[in-house]
Amino acid sequence: MAKQNTTRIPTTMNSLNPVETYGDNKGAIFMVKQRISNNRSKHIDIDYHYAREKVQDDKTFTVNYVPTDDNCSDILTKCVNAFLHDKHCNFIFKRET
User: Fold this and answer.
1) Are 52 and 9 members of one domain?
2) Chain segment 74-86, per-residue pLDDT in tens
3) DSSP assigned state of 18
4) Assign residue 22 a region: left if phi > 0, alpha if psi is -120 to 50, beta otherwise?
5) Which domain holds residue 33?
6) Hey, what long-range contacts does 3-6 have (CB within 8 A, 24 or more apart)?
7) What does pTM read for this prediction?
8) Based on the domain organization, do 16 and 62 belong to the same domain?
């Protein structure tokens, strides 16, 4: 049932520009953008192929690479040094440096 609710939103978004997503994992980005199937990718659960479908077929999402040092979501998920913390906070809150 939750899956039905999440698919309704992207269906209405198809008339709009695609949602841009960013990541620093080149392997994951490659797998989402390419239709590959080999021994190493067969273990991936079918639910995760949903993202590939939305990127390739529906064009609801775009996946872009961002270097690890510029990934501002790291301050929410990782232990970063003070320089990176200040850099990302300044970017998120649009503060002048």
Assistant:
1) yes
2) 888 889 899 999 9
3) P
4) beta
5) 2-66
6) none
7) 0.63
8) yes
